[in-house]
Every structure is written in structure tokens, then in C-alpha cells.
Amino acid sequence: MKVHNTLGNGFQEVIYQRCLALELEKAGLCYAREKEHTIFYEGVDVGTRRADFVVEDKVIVELKALVNLEDVHLAQAKNYVVAYDFPLGLLINFGSTSLQYKLVFNPKYNSENSKIK
User: Fold this and answer.
1) 28-68 confidence digits (pLDDT tens)
2) CATH number at residue 62
3) Which terminus of the chain faces fewer neighbouring Cβ atoms within 10 Å, N or C?
4) pLDDT for position 70
5) Number of separate domains in the chain
6) Full DSSP string of 56-115
7) Residue 110: inside a domain, yes or no?
8) Which of 25, 22, 21 is nearest to 34 (CA)?
9) Does some domain include residue 73?
């Protein structure tokens, strides 16, 4: 909220990423920015994708700077939490007049199989 309240909308996504990184540091949270992850299809490496942020090795944070979030953006965020095998993610859109955010749950997450406890 602080980043959006301070900057408002209209900047490129990378500006919001940099500001959010500063706020995560101030909050003392452990995070990785643009963390790359291999995507597998039927056990075959088919490429990589980078999440905007991985916070505390538990939450995927995907940022957007769009006029409005659409279903495709929510689907993308959901795919990331599944691919990274995290229980949840957060989709944040800084591009609208009011900050938009969605909590995204991993429907395939099984805490017993996870390295996250």
C-alpha cells in the first residue's frame, strides 16, 4: 500500500518492483527478486520462468502495472504458485487508480510433500 500511496499509478512495473524491494528490506523480510524456476512437463524441462518475488520462501508475489487486472493475470499467478509448489501467492497491480490485489491459492499444494514447514 505504501508504494502505491507514495508513487501512485503510471510507472513501469520495474519501478514498483524496486520500491517494493526497499519496503520488504525495511520490514526485515527475506526475499528473492526475479527468482528463476524450471518448468517441467511430464518430467521434461521445458523452460524457466521468473517470479517477481519469492518472500520468505513461502509466498510468490507477482506484480503488474496495468489499467486493470484480467483473468489471464490471475491464471498466471496461479500457475506460478503451482509451478513453485508454494501454498499461496499474491498478485498486485500498481497500474490502476486504486491498488488491486488478489490472494492466490495453490489447489494442488500438499504441505506433507513440501519443503516449506
Assistant:
1) 999 999 989 898 889 999 999 999 999 999 999 999 999 99
2) 3.90.320.10
3) C
4) 92
5) 1
6) TTTEEEEEE--SS--HHHHHHHHHHHHHTT-SEEEEEE-SSSS-EEEEEE-TT--TTT-S
7) no
8) 21
9) yes
> Contact, 73 vs 89, CB < 8 A?
no
Position 114 scores a pLDDT of: 58
Q: How would residue 117 be classed by pLDDT, with cut points 50, 70 and 90?
A: very low
Task: Tell me the pTM.
Answer: 0.87
Residue found by looking up cell 504441505 in the block:
111
Report yes or no on 111 lying in a domain: no
| 10 DSSP 8-state letter | -
Tell me the three cell numbers of residue 11. Answer: 510507472
DSSP assignment of 27-64, as one string?
A: TT--EEEEEEEEEEETTEEEEEEEEEEEETTTEEEEEE
- C-alpha triplet 55, 100, 80: angle, nearest 5°: 40
Handedness of CA 67, 90, 78, 81 (dihedral sign): positive
Residue 55 structural domain: 2-105
All cell numbers assigned to 79: 500457475
Side-chain half-sphere of 42: how many Cα atoms within 13 Å?
0
